[in-house]
Write a structure and sequence with these properties.
Helix content is 12%, strand content 41%. The protein is mainly beta and 139 residues long. The chain has a single domain, classed as Immunoglobulin-like. The radius of gyration is 17 Å and the shape is globular.
Length: 139
């Protein structure tokens, strides 16, 4: 008979298999490993690489966050952005112009209310996209 620990591990694996994803990360199609938002009056910088006219759908939820509101603070100049619940959908413009936009995410982390500002920079080019990772920006 399996031990309690083995049963727990099997249940976690079964949960992940049934839900199709791990619960501790934000999901999306354009940022492989986004810098996590913490809702602690923090600012995170996300770099996005797309081809002209390409789309980016990025979730903003992590397992310990409850998101109440997402607001576009600064619209992109060349592309378009739409908020869809706790995610955004960005469509790059037809030119190879770099773009920026800013989002404000309000909610709570572990029941403590707060907000995070996301400053996104979009690099638009015909070059193949490479693996996208976040790197802390020195302030």
């Amino acid at each position: 008979m399996p031990s309690q620990t083995a049963r727990f591990v099997l249940l976690v694996i079964l949960f992940i298999m049934l839900t199709g994803r791990a619960p501790a990360q934000a999901g999306g199609t354009c940022i492989l490993r986004p810098e996590p938002i913490r809702l602690r009056s923090d600012v995170v910088n996300w770099a996005i690489e797309l081809r002209p006219g390409a789309e980016c759908v990025q979730g903003l939820r992590w397992s310990t966050l409850l998101i109440d509101q997402v607001v576009v603070m600064s619209q992109p100049k060349f592309g378009r952005i739409a908020i869809n619940g706790p995610s955004f959908h960005y469509i790059a413009g037809p030119s190879k112009e770099s773009d920026t936009f800013q989002l404000l995410v309000k909610g709570s982390a572990l029941r403590v209310p707060g907000e995070t500002t996301i400053e996104a920079t979009v690099q638009v080019s015909d070059a193949p996209t490479r693996e996208r990772r976040w790197e802390p920006v020195a302030h």
